[in-house]
Structure formats: structure tokens, C-alpha cells
């Protein structure tokens, strides 16, 4: 049985929705495979220096973002819900194995729906425990950053899933 997701609350949540010209199965593949995710997951000139994914509830979801100055920003959490080609829910509120994290910031879910064989409805939602964290995330550039990442992901898939830089 598919668990219901909470309806986004504009006081706490940020939502990015797009219709993109790539198949659901390839979006799923590049979101769940470290060798692919590292090529598009950060807005350039940032990059991903490390990535470990164990795509199952309680499995590790870890990326380390590398700034243009060479400073690393690790992000570690776990997956909460995984429905292949439909939904991916992950959080930094819990660490792998559902161990509580010391400094939680947000939970996110990705929802994918086919709009045909080569087109996908892509919805990414970041949910926060406080209005302060939602505001902070928006000020960090949620819409520009996550939007740029979607464009990079589509370019990566349409380019044959080969590194461009």
C-alpha cells in the first residue's frame, strides 16, 4: 500500500514542479545511481565529490558537495520511502538505519509521473519543521538551485548520460 504524503504547506514547504522531455525511467536511474547523480546534482560550478546511495527505506543517502573554492559540504541522511519510477522520499532528519540526526534541516520527496513515453511530470518538495528553516532554504536559492539542477539533469539524460565537464 502506498503511503499518503502530506499536502505541501506554504508556511513550511518549498515545491518545484516541471514537465520535462525525458522518460520517467531515466529520471529514476539518474536519481538512484551514484555514477550518474554526481554529474548533475549540484548547480555548476559546484560539483559532487562523493556520493553513496543505498536506495531502500533506512538506506544511506549521502552526497558531498564541493564548492568552486574546494570546500566540501557533506549531506547525509536516509531514504524513507522508495517506489521505483514514482516516488523517492529522503531526509537528513534521520541517518542510515533511522538513527536520529543531530542537526536536521529538511525532508524531501520526488514524485514522478509519465506524461507519455518520453515526457515526465517532475515534482520535488522540500518540507521543513520550522518556518525559519523554510525561509533559510529559500534564501539559500532553493528555486534557482533546484531548478538549475533539473535543467542539468535533463541535459545529462538527453546527452546520452555522459559527463559534460
From TrEMBL:
Its protein name is: Polyketide cyclase
Q: Which residues form the signal peptide?
A: none
One Pfam family, short name please? AHSA1
Q: Which family does it belong to?
A: Belongs to the AHA1 family.
All residue ranges annotated as the Activator of Hsp90 ATPase homologue 1/2-like C-terminal domain in the record: 21-157
